[in-house]
Design a protein that fits this description.
9 helices, D-Maltodextrin-Binding Protein, domain 2, Double Stranded RNA Binding Domain, five-stranded mixed β-sheet, 23% strand
Length: 312
């Protein structure tokens, strides 16, 4: 594949956020290779078809990428744009992560009807989320809060808040910012309160191995973000994490040093095991694995066995 002679086809989901992300990649490619043309191909995934069941009950990781990866392997598209947090830790043979652009704000955001910050929400407030990770951390701090299951795209979730009987919803700040909903954000939740999902706020540009698209997307890669994501995904891989277990990790880079904090919790938030490790950026993957091992020794193994029926 060379950028001066053919159309590049990007596989994407059809949600408003997925299309925004793919259009962003398209515009960067056109800036870098003005002689090429770029088209989006919308592909409906299993996760898009299941809208009334919590992801934790239908398989979690891979639900939003499988059909797009099949199209990539079959040559129907040349690259795929995903939210990195949707990506399984193991990619199908023949595919690779071609680039990880600079991360958007990785934190979770509170959107409340009364514009109240999280500590000010009334007792027994109803907060919408279908994320076990978010729910467990909320309940760990505020066990009085009632968690309301909430699925759908960002527009749908905000509309349910505006028209329903919830006091607040918690969403990824990145999605709200990308779609222009910054003014709806009541509070960015500090990572000491709400540790993000692995790779939250980051994009994944997936390509076929040994394909010309690998070189084409390389200029879109952000080294610091990619290094942080390597650490976080190594943590997730060691724990064999999916949507069935509340777990989170967030890596930060300072010069040549990377620090990664992670947690594993039970679903009611009564038990939360967390730790932090630091070391050189070149050892990002090893540090993520070491953090997972630390948590397993501190009690995460028992949580995993209880929630999944097997140890890590």
């Amino acid at each position: 594949m060379t950028p001066d002679k053919q159309t590049i086809r990007i596989g994407t989901r059809g949600s408003q956020l997925a299309l925004w992300q793919s259009e962003w990649v398209k515009s960067r490619l056109l800036e870098t290779f003005p002689g090429c043309s770029v088209e989006l191909e919308v592909i409906k995934t299993t996760g898009d078809k299941i809208t009334d069941v919590p992801l934790a009950k239908v398989g979690g990781k891979g639900l939003f990428v499988k059909e797009i990866e099949e199209a990539l392997l079959a040559g129907r598209v040349d690259l795929a744009v995903h939210s990195m947090k949707d990506m399984p830790t193991e990619l199908p043979p023949g595919l690779c992560i071609g680039a990880v652009p600079m991360r958007e704000n990785p934190r979770d955001a509170l959107v409340s009807r009364s514009n109240m910050a999280f500590p000010d929400l009334p007792r027994s407030a109803r907060v919408g989320t279908s994320s076990l990770r978010r729910a467990s951390q909320i309940l760990h701090i505020r066990p009085d809060i009632e968690i309301v299951p909430l699925r759908g795209n960002i527009d749908t979730r905000l509309r349910k808040l505006d028209t329903g009987d919830m006091d607040a919803v918690i969403l990824a700040a990145a999605g709200l910012l990308r779609l222009g909903f910054e003014k709806r954000i009541t509070q960015y939740l500090d990572t000491s309160i709400m540790l993000p999902a692995v790779a939250q706020g980051a994009l994944c540009i997936e390509t076929r191995e040994n394909d010309g698209a690998v070189a084409m997307v390389k200029p879109l890669n952000h080294d610091g973000t990619h290094t942080a994501i390597i650490a976080e995904r190594a943590f997730l891989k060691r724990l064999e994490g999916g949507c069935q277990v509340p777990m989170a990790a967030f890596a930060q880079i300072d010069g040549q040093t990377i620090s990664i904090r992670g947690l594993v919790a039970d679903v009611d938030g009564k038990t939360v095991v967390q730790s932090t490790v630091s070391g050189p950026c070149r050892a990002a993957a090893d540090l993520g694995t070491r953090l997972a091992e630390d948590l397993l020794q501190q009690g995460a193994k028992q949580i995993l066995e209880t929630l999944t029926g097997q140890g890590a």
